[in-house]
């Protein structure tokens, strides 16, 4: 694909610093399978995916990539690719089947084997405590609308920290609380599938609080010298028309500042509280919460895929709502009733998300200008495309997967990272989403983000051309030339 003229992000040969971390990321529910084994309790994603009509084709994570049973094979794959780091998440319902109470040793053992397997292969373990698989029992008691869930998260963090805290290199509390709150409780596109604007904002706060309580708990039990972080999917907004600034202010408040400001400055943005006053009075925020949420962070994880176009609705024309999210009935933007979401110019990935590497560079620069002493890491970036699968007897698997468009996407976004480094951003690394094709939430298995293909009939792993390309990147710390198969 080609971007607009002048938009040159083909940084072939650019070199990253020696300590720049190049790795990949996954999440528990998306790859593990073994949904009912070794004492794992049900999560909201089990319930959601087993509810007809919620996920494409009725797909579930019951088997997924069967990573739970193929751990050693997948660890060897990571070693073959030369990954410097691997970001994974821990399934809360494997550790506490109902979200509270004593630890399930079999669950801890699985992650302990994973961490040990990474360390013997020289791969840094980056562990996320919560990548959306909330124990169903906690949802039954209100889920993220209930303060008790934040408190339970602190207990869970203490259990996992005590078990793995001698070996994990980086702890991440939450992955993308924006998705958990607004897609889970606002739009209904994600589990638990609720469409309640006030609940979405209560969820925002209780996720923020869980982050703070989780960090406090981790720091009280972890013994090793480690880093503490959180991963946010910060949005890059493009404003259009009269009132562009106002549309950006409102959406930036809901998507970015409502997480960044409490976590890094210890307060909620007053304009967001005012914008959402007709939705909720925020009485779930108690004295002292903002200070609890604001715990020291060693690195901020940033997930970036695309940009979002907004403008103020004129109140007359048909309302535009294409914000790139699956339409599940509710709005993921509580209180932003006057904002329209515009389909941005292409090119697009198979998610329908527009490709704009400049957005990543701008995002990294703007966050680091706002928080100059805070190191950043790109904890997810990548793309779904329709991969071309061809027989190729020269490959170990007998099959080659040509995905030049994914290589091109990665090249351009890595170039954006390099430009951010040149502009003084303290960027520590880049993790590609994802190691494997996997359960893409509401889209089931219909969207493939992996640099390694998974054959869902045989569960065989087949490295795509992008995996070979990424391995070359990880080996040399240089952005490789053309797709390697073309040479
Ligand atoms: C992130 N949206 O999810 C997640 O962290 C991954 O688990 C996921 O597979 C990946 O990005 C690709 O989607 C998102 O609707 C899901 O804007 C949805 C949205 C953004 C991120």
From TrEMBL:
Enzyme Commission code(s) on record: 3.2.1.21
Name this protein carries in UniProt: Beta-glucosidase
Chain positions covered by the region annotation Disordered: 316-336
Keywords of the record: Carbohydrate metabolism, Cellulose degradation, Glycosidase, Hydrolase, Polysaccharide degradation
Organism: Georgenia daeguensis
Keyword match Transcription regulation: no
Family indicated by similarity: Belongs to the glycosyl hydrolase 1 family.
Catalytically driven reaction(s): Hydrolysis of terminal, non-reducing beta-D-glucosyl residues with release of beta-D-glucose
InterPro entries: GH, Glyco_hydro_1, Glyco_hydro_1_beta-glucosidase
Entry annotated with the keyword Secreted: no
